[in-house]
Design goal:
Helix content is about 75%, strand content about 0%. It has twelve helices and no strands. It is mainly α and about 270 residues long.
């Protein structure tokens, strides 16, 4: 019975709290709402904080309190993990109050919210590119900031993600047996990210795609396309003479050399 009574008491307290909050939402007392919004924020009740701030901020737009309320709203949305709204809030704040004590952090957080929305490499990397641009802007605007190194590290992390995205896209055509498109995509990836950790594999896939494209071409086109394969072969072995793909590379060369009637042997 005591347990049941305790549960009923908790329900009554919650109901009373909700009732008071509903009355507060309907109130026209902006100062009270501001005070309660600050209380809710300190308590970590961010949904209520955002609701109250959304109601009162227009009233404080032209006052000295507008800056702090705008900053509070941005942090509230961030703590709610609504990075889209938070990023926009921080951006607007940094543009509206460029000399604020929070301007540096707001500029950093604008980029960081895009970073938080950056998805895994397989997906569209629009937010990744936006974050890189925003972090670079932060570095240029606040070169003496103690967050510059953080920004640099996050940029490198996202650039690695772009490399992975490029690798995945290039490999996709190969996996689909679209060898002509694969050669183009692999070549573009290598040009865009020449220092990728996947360089050896990408160059081999480009060589093999060129070879398979030539092998499956109509006879009138094979001479030219096997010659392209031979060029890819020489580029590969020059850069990776001791490759893990050596056996496959040799097989490709043997078929290509036989077709082109080349007597040179691989060493």
């Amino acid at each position: 019975m005591r347990r049941k009574g305790f549960i009923l008491l908790i329900i009554a307290v919650l109901a009373s709290s909700c009732g008071e909050y509903e009355k507060l939402l309907k109130s026209s007392d902006a100062e009270l709402k501001k005070e309660k919004a600050l209380e809710y924020y300190e308590e970590g009740r961010y949904v209520r904080t955002a609701e109250l701030l959304g109601q009162i901020m227009p009233r404080y737009r032209a006052t000295s309190e507008a800056e702090e309320l705008s900053w509070l709203m941005a942090n509230t949305h961030y703590n709610m993990r609504d990075y889209l709204l938070a990023g926009n809030d921080y951006k607007v704040f940094s543009e509206t109050y460029p000399y604020s004590e929070h301007a540096e952090e707001a500029t950093f957080m604008t980029a960081y919210c895009d970073y938080m929305m950056s998805p895994r490499p397989e997906l569209d990397q629009g937010y990744t590119l936006s974050a890189i641009e925003a972090f670079r802007y932060f570095q240029n605007r606040f070169p003496a900031s103690d967050k510059v190194d953080d920004a640099r590290g996050l940029i490198e992390e996202m650039q690695d993600k772009l490399v992975e995205k490029s690798y995945i896209n290039a490999r996709l055509y190969y996996d689909l047996n679209e060898y002509r498109a694969a050669v183009v995509a692999l070549d573009n990836s290598l040009k865009e990210y020449p220092n990728t950790r996947h360089r050896e594999e990408l160059m081999f896939l480009k060589l093999e795609s060129s070879f398979l494209y030539a092998l499956n071409s109509v006879s009138a086109k094979q001479q030219e396309r096997f010659q392209d394969t031979l060029d890819e072969y020489y580029s590969f072995v020059e850069e990776f003479p001791d490759s893990e793909f050596t056996d496959d590379v040799k097989d490709i060369f043997d078929v290509t050399a036989d077709f082109l009637k080349i007597e040179e042997t691989t060493e």
